[in-house]
Amino acid sequence: MFSAELKKGSSEMLILSLLEARPRHGYEIGKLIEARSGGKLTFALPTLYPTLLRLENRGWIKGRWVEKAGERRRCFYRLTSEGRRVLSTQRKTWSAFIDAVHAVMGRSHA
Amino acid sequence: MRDWERYVRTHLPLPPLTRERKSRIVQELASQFEDFYREAVARGMTESDADAFARAQITDWTSLASTLGDVESSHVRSPLDRWSERLDDRARPKKGMSPIGLLADVRYALRLLRKTPVFALAAIGTLALGIGANTTIFALVQTMLLQPLPYQDPDRVVMVWEDASAAGFPRNTPAPANYRDWRAMSRSFTDIAAATFASATLTGQGAPEVVLGRRVTANFFPVLGVQPLLGRVFAAEDDESGTRVVVISHALWQRRYGGDPGIVGRTILMRIDPAGDVRHEVIGVAPPSFVFLSREIDYWVPMQFSPEEAATRDNHYLMVVARLKPAVSIEAASSDMQAIARRLSEQYPDTNRGLGTVIVPIREEVLGDTRVQVIALMIAAAAIVLIACANLASLLLARASVRRGEYAVRLSLGATRGRLARQVLVEALCLSIAGGVLGLAIPILTTTFVEQIVPIGLQALTVSVMDWRLFAFAGVLSIATGLLFSVGPALQSAHASTADVLQQHARGHSGGRNRAFRDALVVLQVAATLVLLVAAGLMLRTLANLNGVERGFDANNLLTMQVPSMPKYADPIKRPPFYERIIAGVRALPGVRGVALGSMLPFQSSGNTRVFRVEGRQLLPEDLPDALFRVGTADYLQTLGVTLVEGRLLDARDGADAPRAIVVNETLVRRFMDGQSALGRQIRFGLTEPPFTVVGVVRDVLERGYERDPKPGVYVSQPQGPRFLPTTNLVVRVDGDPLSYAAAVQRVIRQVDPEQPIRQVRTMTDVIGLTVGDRRQQTTLLVVFGALALVIASLGLYGLLAQTVSARGREIGIRIALGATWRTVTQMVMLRGIVLTSVGVGIGAVLAWSVTRAMDTLLYDVGPTDPLTFALVVGLLAGVSAVACAIPAMRAARVDPMLVLRDQ
Hints:
Strand content of chain A: 5-15%
Order of helices and strands of chain A: HEHHEEH
Mean pLDDT of chain A: 82
Strand content of chain B: 5-15%
Low-confidence stretches of chain A: none
Oligomer: heterodimer
Number of helices of chain A: 4
Structural class of chain B: alpha+beta
Largest interface: A-B, 22 and 23 residues
Number of strands of chain A: 3
Mean pLDDT of chain B: 83
């Protein structure tokens, strides 16, 4: 549906924003992106997981193995304070970019 | 259901990663496969379809593996981060100094230290000695200075002595009638109590045992404000009625009566010297902490002055203790007492002329000079830790220079400076805490040695690891030490910038600031060592001076023991045969050269004097005809080995019926014979006793110990001596080691009378040693501290220069290649060592000059700024540091320029 470059550029921001509310595990993140985008955005495992690992290595998110009652042991990722800061700048940049794109392209109804 | 982990592991060709990272990735992917699989099953797929669905999520394993490899390699983790990461999996980390991060630092530090075992062991050893020394001294300080005396409101308790300075007794024991007048007349005290020395033989249950005790007035315990542990203390009736009651010490209660809870009310068999009833009722047990002037006291009985005793003014033997009224100062009490003393001396000029009073707070009485000693030791121990800290700081700085490369890499990879500094601190703390734990062994191992410094009037030193104060002290000191020696290096590591560090590392050169700091540390070590060595040197000279003093008799090869007189020999008719049998038995032992009994041995008593008159000589106003009065069996003076100046010594001729003969010392002759020979002159004691004729003059014997002024002294033979002075000290001159005769001599005494107790079996050298005992312990400690400081400081100097030589190897190589000679190279290296030592010696000398003045009271016949001691110490320090400098200097000269240049 969207080009790989477009997806790749936004994947990090999407993951960070999904973790803003609460920690989630990898599978849940993939499913949420798919569900919230109405199926327009999907991140397959070979894309999603390296992204998570990269975000974690940068210290923006932090994975932790948790065993919840009645569930399997899963790695839950939470946003670090560093990640929270990154997310807020990315949001600002993103909306500024969108505004700029709109301004250039003119509002039209698809 | 599949084993997804195995599935992932077999399919994913991961690049080399650590085991933790690999398994982390595998687990996470497997977990997601499981999610896909379950979702498929939940949607109604068959298991094999669901399995295929899940597997379809990843098809290009190679590409995934290389992506993951890129992600990982762009993020190199230090071992430190790996540790903390692994630990973080177990607990959520907190911000800042999280305990988890700290634990990781500790583990990292331990691993680093294990890699440099020599450094680690040297550092821990140095710290253990330093912290151990301080903890030992702390135990002393705790016992001697911090612990309050075991009395109620101890600051109000004072000793009241008679001031008989004119007679050589600045703090004399007053006579009973004077004490009673003081008590009646003084207005400054809530009450005044008196005690006197006593001893008793305990019989009945168990072997006969001689114990020391005191006769005390009924108000003794109330004046001190001491409640008994069990039972009661004395009431006024006990003192007046003559009942046989006793309060025993906690130690005696435990030792002899097994802590019998029914001890109060029990009757014990106790014969009090010299005679008296045997049966005493125990009315109370003193608390375990109770000490009054001597911790060896085991019982207290009522004073029960007889009417004659109560009226006497010329028999001085009481120890008087009083409690100041709340608002009264020592000065006010002193002038009150001086006024009373003046009135008494006007009223009783014969006995009280020239007598004053002196009031001494009980703490000062008990501690005396030892307070200065302990403070000196405390300073010395602190200096040791300071030197050790300086040394370790220097070593850590050297290590930091070596590790600059590591720091630079870690900094450029994003480690914060705080993190690096923290790492250095943690390493230091690991060392110092290990040192502290080891150091705790030192006070325990040295207890028996150190406890001899504690004055007899205080509770014995107790050292136990279970003592939380000791533990806390060692703990706090360990942490403080660790922080102290690592702050410099930690700041250094935090200050370094990446580029700076990398460049400097390349040049193999440490920064100027670093170098100046390390130089300062060496100077500090040298200075502190000099102070310690000077203090030790002054004490050594003091001991040597004391040993060199002419004692007036031959103290070598003498065995001594006390044979307390028993009531059954109180009768002067029964006494001599008993003594003769002992003497005959001991003399028959092989190797015995002489044996005698004396009333008081040299160094045992500064008193036991009697007032005398030289017949036919007018007494001058300034004369104080008071002489040390010693009684001995025949050959007593010969056995001691005194030096005869004139006439003869006493011997078997001077029996009970022979003409009364006396030997006098040179001081008596000098002061009372007006330049004439003493031989044939008559000396009289008391008004009714017949006079003695002087038959001999001997050199002054140090009867009063080293540091008291000499007094006139006389010796008479036992059969002619007064009844009240029993000769209870056996002295035996032998061939070889005196103590090897102890058992045989005691056997002889037991054969004569199996009931005869024997106490204090010692060589004469030990008797003398006891009088300087605490000073000897202190000197030994100071010498050990000084030697320790010297070793640490010279190692510090050596380490600094050796490290400089290896760091400047290239420069030295170039110099040699350019024609520098062996001589110029060694000079260059040594010069720095010499300059540092000289500065250190200069600062140290100034410090020592001011510090040792405080030791003045401990010194004997040597000034606190004794030039010889200073010169010797400076020489020693210079010699040792020359060696410490020469070794690296020689190594510098042997640098092969080709090797060094090629290496660069």
